[in-house]
Amino acid sequence: MCSVPLLELLGIHVLSDFFPANPLALLLPLIVSAVLASLCTVCQARASFTLLVLVCVSCIGGIFLACTVRNGSLCCGTPSERITHVEGVLRFDTSLSDRGNTVFQVQLDSVGDRWGNRFSAKGNLMLLSHETQGILEAGTRIGADGHIWSPEKDLNLFYVDSVTAIEASRCSASLRLRILAWAQQRLDLLGEPIAGALLLGTASAEGRVKGLAVEAGVAHVLALSGMHLQFFVLLIMPILTLMFGAAKGRMVAYPFALGYVMLVGFKPSLTRALLMLSLGPWKRRFGMITILWMSYVVQTICFPKTIDSEGALLSYASLAAILLLAPSLSALFHPYLTRMLASALATSVTASLGTGWLSILLFGAWYPVGIIVSIIVVPLVTLLFIMLVLYLITGNALAANAVRLLSDWFTKVVMVASEWSAGHHWASTLRFWACSVAAMLTVAVIVGYACRTKRKRNGQTYDVGFSLRFSKRHQ
Predict the structure, then answer these.
(1) Cβ contacts of residue 123 below 8 Å, gap of 6+?
(2) Which residues lie closer than 8 Å to 138 by C-beta, 6 or more apart?
(3) pLDDT tens digit sequence for 121-153
(4) pTM of the model
(5) DSSP-derived 3-state class of residue 54
(6) Strand pairing of 85-90 and 75-76?
């Protein structure tokens, strides 16, 4: 079911599934921004009005985020232990868990009991089916029979006995699913379980490999995120630069990035990366921190279904930590390492420590070994992503052999890191994370102060404290 009639009328079905149902959700921030921006052009105090625009839009974004969280809370007209039937709309494409179960993330419309009574309901519910189902696209209306698991402990998990797609797939949806099915079938010929998850996000990696990646602290590389969108853009940029030049090539890359995201689905981190890419022309004027904040506000207002998730929280937390602290740590490592290696190590440290507390609160563990493993795994995954694209397009045997070789290396690296994590449980605690963050912040502050002092000293000018006057020379 489409959320925005205007987008449905224009045929942009995939986008409409992630926009808010109320058109005012799109018009209100645009109207407010336009009015205040107009005032900025006629007022002398432009900085004050610019700040007012940012504050107003931020308040609107905060209101929408609060509404999104409130609407995501499950509420129905019957006790949860009596629910045996649910109906609703898929928030995201169906996926597979590490044990091969099909996962449905549903926005509820109604529920029912075993006596056939129907009750209105709202909120988000996760459905779990032990049978492997075909891919169902976000926006598809489904009905499922089953039961709530442990209502007194977890109300948002529903075990499915049978599921039915109530609304038929649209033409554009069926085309997208056919492309995904063709690509997944082609990747399955490689026999590598991480291929489909890494490139398309259509299925989870094999349970053993995914478990090793989690314990190695690099589970993010197997889930589609902004990093994968960067891989895709870096892959096509050389070709676009040769065809259109550097400046126009960056502009032409955006439609390709949008097409990739529409194909694989609007995952939270992918949506954030796409918004930041679209705001790239203003990077020099506002800075990356402001661009990140603007992306968060736009995603909250325009893509509320992608912001209310653990993935979005981890994505913004990691990138904010990188932007704030990575430059200082990179300056610390630079005298001892090459510029590229120092930047990679600083990025890995800040991203891991910036999301460590969230990992502990959400998942009960944090694996600091991922700081080192990420430096090794990310280049491997980059090459693997490129080889997968080449194999998918050309079917080249050399690319297939490279995929198998890189996948084997990836498995060996995460296996060694997983064994280290298993023998050092104390490193996964909140206390160890707090000590690590305290050490990182101390070093970052000291290095930042030292760099500022050095720049100030190098640019300092001296004078003798008095001026000399010379009379005009008489001819």
Answers:
(1) 71, 72, 73, 74, 75, 76, 107, 108, 156
(2) 14, 17, 18, 90, 91, 92, 93, 265, 266, 305
(3) 888 888 888 776 667 777 788 888 888 875 455
(4) 0.73
(5) helix
(6) unpaired
